[in-house]
Amino acid sequence: MEREQQLNEWVQKIMALDEDAQKKATDHLNDLTKPPGSLGKLEELTIRLAGITGKSQPTFSKKAVIVMASDHGVVEEGVSSFPAEVTQQMVHNFLAGGAAVNVLARQAGAEVICVDIGVNGEPDHPELVSRPVRKGTANMAKGSAMSREEALQAILTGIDIVQESVNKGFTLFVTGEMGIGNTTPSAAVTSVLTGVSVQEATGRGTGLDNAGVQHKANVIARAIQQNQPNPKDPLDVLAKIGGLDIAGLTGVIIASAALKCPIVIDGYISTAAALVASRIAPGCLDYMIASHTSEERGHAALLQTLELSPMLQLGMRLGEGTGGVLSLHLIEAAGRIMAEMATFSSAGISGSTGNSPVVEEESNHEVMES
User: Fold this and answer.
1) Quick check: is 13 in a domain?
2) For residue 191, which of 56, 75, 201, 235 is within the disulfide window of CB 3.0 to 4.6 Å?
3) CA angle, 320 as apex, 310 and 304 as ends, to 5°?
4) 181 plus 317 within the same structural domain
5) CB count, 10 Å around CB of 329?
6) Is residue 343 scored above 80 in pLDDT?
């Protein structure tokens, strides 16, 4: 079966959110002992999760961060302050449980699934999911980063990882990535698909100084000029100026939506993948939960294009899935509110008529009257 046909079949599986579950969740929220809407984004999150899962009070006992690891040929242009071999070294760090995402995932009760989708080396570990499409992309400043077939293979690899994980009982996913130089293709993809300038899309990455950022922007502009990606064809953009990690995450996002699992989007690289996924499969946008706004230049433009409102603003720009994992605590909080908070009737509190309880607003604070 042709890879594009396989991808299209997954796209066709994505359904609209369950409105009945959303209504039930809304009704329950409005009967809890609080003014309607007073928990703000937590309530919006709760209703979104109900629509995604088809359950008015969903729970997520098995959560996974899928970290796509790959190398990028454009690193040879000097766009990163770290050498390419750090990608493989960090893969071993993930597998040893020593990276930031491992620490935060343990705290949040999530597992880290590390996938070699294109590391330029031979990482070996019993816990590594080894699915390399090729050993890193080519230098996009000199030609196409990969072929269209390789981009499709990477997307389908991400889809397979999610399907396998769902078969093991996982019901919620966070996007993560590792790849020295991967903010460079992310900025290129952002510029082409959103229309923002290369300068606006290009940030410091691993800590470049101003001269380094300008050089990086020049490399990106050269890559776009060299490859002439078609902004109306997201696969063309992904193949010519993207990365295997971005492509793999594109598949993770599409499969999560098709299988009715929430997909928490991390930072800049993850959101570039989210934009590609939304252009391939617009329906998957409803299944995305934006975790935070990265300090990496261009991320805010991506979120604005996708019309996603992030839950956190922490000044982070590490990647790996770290911001996404931190937002799992808010998802847990939303579930506990639904499951554990008393309703007006169960608490014996008067004033709820299905609309609004008896409240007064004083100095912008909502005070419950007994």
Assistant:
1) no
2) 201
3) 25
4) yes
5) 15
6) yes
pTM > 0.85: yes or no: yes
**Active site amino acids:** 320
Are residues 72 and 49 part of one domain? no
Q: Given pLDDT bands bounded at 50, 70 and 90, which one contains residue 1?
A: low
Strand order in the sheet with 110-118: 129-130, 110-118, 63-70, 172-178, 263-265, 288-290
Same domain, 126 and 176: yes
Sign of the Cα pseudo-torsion (252, 156, 52, 168, in order) = negative
